[in-house]
Amino acid sequence: MTRPPVRHLDPEAFEADPEPVLAELRATAPVCHVPELGLWLVTRWDDVAHIEAHPEDFTAATEPSWLRRALGPNMLTCDPPAHTRLREIFGPPLTAGGRAGTVVAEELPVLADDLIDTFVDEGAVELVDAYARPFSAAALSLVLGLDEPPERVWHWCEGLCADIANFTDDPERTRLGDAARDELGEVLARRLDELERRPDDSALSAYLAAGASRAEIIANVRLMISGGINEPADGIGLVVWTLLDRPELAAGLDEDHRRWRHLIEEVLRRHSPVGTVTRQTTRPVTLAGVDLPAGALVAGVLRSIDLDESHWHRPELVDPDRREGPHAAFALGAHRCIGEWLGRQEIRVACRRLFDRLGDRDLALDPTAGPVELHGFEFRGPRSLHLRWSP
Ligand code: HEM
Question: How far is the CA of 228 from the centre of ligand 1 (A)?
Fold first, then answer.
């Protein structure tokens, strides 16, 4: 029997810039064990597609589970049929026909304008903190009916994300995650009491009406707050950065809804804000010729497969005219993002309002702020984005 491939990496360097390591793994060890992460990394498109298509061999109910520890049992820590029931309850309010549809059409453009009003006369802004994050936090709060200030919601998102991606068991990240989980749990319990007395058109109210238990609502809303805020915020930052870094991509965007859509999809493919789908083998499985034991924790690396040279032509290039089929930024299988419609609309509304209002005022990256740095393996986006325009 051949020895399974093992690769060592420096977690800090990997967190800062995973792409070179992932490219090397795709070329030389597409299924390999990484002791520093306690995971097998799977980096080629076909192999991750196989994992996603075979939940009977690759379960989402992993043991241990960073996600369950950080949030409580939720839809992303179980398989069908329990998973199917939760999707049916939690999905509809997040779509065009549910509460999200009304929020996107009526409330998000106003939210975007209100935020832009706070800095439009300054002629300069750090966009991530002043716009992308509060917009994303407020948007999900509006859909859920959470009624909490965006900065508080963002703070919960940060704490939960720190612990979800805590592959190295850093106690400080666990502490941040625990604090966010408990505080959000208490706030949600109070809000659900109110909504039981006075139901409304919010997603939380719909979840109660659909028969979800308190514990199910609290854990799954924690999941939404962790993945459903960070990611659209990263998406907004990535799209704005791409457009300002390559101004030729902005040509013809003004009135062209389809072109915006293609551009956003391409940016999501190029940078895949969510790094992995993590599963566990239920039995010994051979993947790409590598024998995985039962119980192996396997991370299908979405960011890698969206850059897989055997699947994409010149994958590193953002090309809105690309027509090579769907990308994997929202995943491929049963756990494919339940908020993908909402996430895409948030990115579209936030970016379009920003360019509609500032695009003809010499909007540009601030050259004095240094190059834009992307950061993160599990969650990836610009840490900060300094912009300037004519006030
Ligand atoms: C650009 C924005 C977004 C990206 C890139 C993204 C990405 C993803 C990915 C890759 C997954 C699969 C994870 C896995 O299988 O392990 C996922 C699942 C999920 N996402 Fe998103 N997401 C985004 C926005 C949102 C929003 C706005 C929500 C709001 C509710 C949300 C809620 C969820 C939930 C609850 C799941 C778990 C689904 C399940 O287990 O069936 N996401 N997302």
Answer: 6
Look up residue 274 and give its DSSP letter: B
Cβ of 300 less than 6 Å from ligand 1: no
Query: How far apart are the CA of 223 and the centre of ligand 1, in A?
Result: 9
224: CB partners within 8 A, 6+ apart: 90, 140, 144, 339
Residue 2 scores a pLDDT above 70: no
Residues whose CB falls within 8 Å of the CB of residue 255, separated by 6 or more in sequence, listed in order: none
pLDDT single digits (tens) 331-372: 999 999 999 999 999 999 999 999 999 989 999 999 999 999
HSE, CB side, 13 Å, CA atoms: give it for residue 370.
5
| Triad 181, 161, 26: Cα angle to 5° | 150
Q: Which atom of ligand 1 is nearest to the CA of 344?
A: 1
* Helix or strand (DSSP H, E) at 158: helix 150-164
User: What's the distance, CA 123 to chain centroid?
Assistant: 30
Q: How is residue 98 written in tokens?
A: 């549910």
The kind and range of the H/E element at 253 are none
Tell me whether residue 120 is exposed, middle or buried, using C-beta atoms within 10 angstroms of its C-beta: 0 to 12, 13 to 18, 19 or more. middle
Which atom of ligand 1 lies closest to the CA of 336? 12
Domains parsed from the chain with CATH numbers: 11-388 (1.10.630.10)
SS3 label, residue 382? strand
